[in-house]
Structure formats: C-alpha cells, structure tokens
Amino acid sequence: GGGGGILPAAGPSLAVIAALRATLIGLALSVAGVGVLLRYFGQVPGLSRLILADTASTSAPGVPEAAAHVAGDAVLGGGAVAVGQTGTVVSTLRPAGEAEIAGQLVDVTSTGAYLEPGTAVRVVEVTRFTVVVDAVETG
C-alpha cells in the first residue's frame, strides 16, 4: 500500500483564527476600558477610596500643621535635634516611629520599648541615621 494518511491543512485552522481574533478584540477593549477608568478615576464612585488624596492631613492630633519633618542628615546638619531634648511621641514607636521635638516631626527609634502616642520622650542619642529616644519617667 501506498497509503496516504490525512495531512493537516496548510496554515492555521478557522478555530485558531477565531480564537485569536476574540483574544485581540478583548485585549483592545480592556486597554480602552483601563484608559477610560484612568481618565475619570476620581469620579468613579468607590474607586477614589483606593488611593490616598494629596490633601490628607499628615499630622497627628495635637501636632501643629506647620511642624517640619526632619530625618537623617537634616537632623545633624541643622543641629535640629540634640541629646537631652524632650518631645512627645506622635506615631506609635514599635520601636520606630515619629516624635514631635522642638516643633518638628522627627523620625525616631525607641530604646526598644513600645511607646504609645502622647508619651513624653527624651533624646538619648543622635547619629547620622537615627535619633534614639527613651520614655521620660513621670511621677
């Protein structure tokens, strides 16, 4: 026998072409839909809650809105924070967070203690990268 088997047709089948066409149309529609959402993102109900607004207040209760935020070299460069100064914890220290010292929000690290906002602290060390504070004993 010179048996000739059934050979596949040359080129892609109609089913593959139809699937590819549907995929491309779906991709184009989804790209267009994302474009529309991005253009009107702030006006779509519910979606605006997924991002933080630029107008949100960054200060904690009791801290003046005008408080400058300093960290790292800025603390040393201007001598903004010195050992012995006292301040108040603004965000919970676990052990890192923020404290208000001399009218400025300063990134600080506690000596290891978990400190709640409102706790009085004293600066015990100032390095190039950290300001270390400890709770002030009251009583």
In short:
Helix content is 22%, strand content 23%. It has 139 residues and is of the alpha/beta class. The longest helix is centred in the N-terminal third of the chain and has 26 residues, at 14-39.
SSE blueprint and pairings:
Layout: H1 14-39, E1 68-70, H2 73-77, E2 86-89, E3 96-101, E4 104-110, E5 120-126, E6 131-135
Parallel strand pairs: 1-4, 4-6
Antiparallel strand pairs: 2-3, 2-5, 3-4, 5-6
Structural class, please? alpha/beta
Q: How large is the share of residues in beta strands?
A: 15-25%
Q: In order across it, which strands form the biggest sheet? A: 2-3-4-6-5
Radius of gyration over all CA atoms, rounded: 30 Å
Question: Which segments are poorly predicted (pLDDT under 50) over 5 or more consecutive residues?
Answer: 56-60
Order of helices and strands: HEHEEEEE
The amount of helix comes to 10-25%
Mean pLDDT: 77
Largest sheet: 5 strands, mixed, barrel
Q: Which outline best applies?
A: elongated
Number of strands: 6
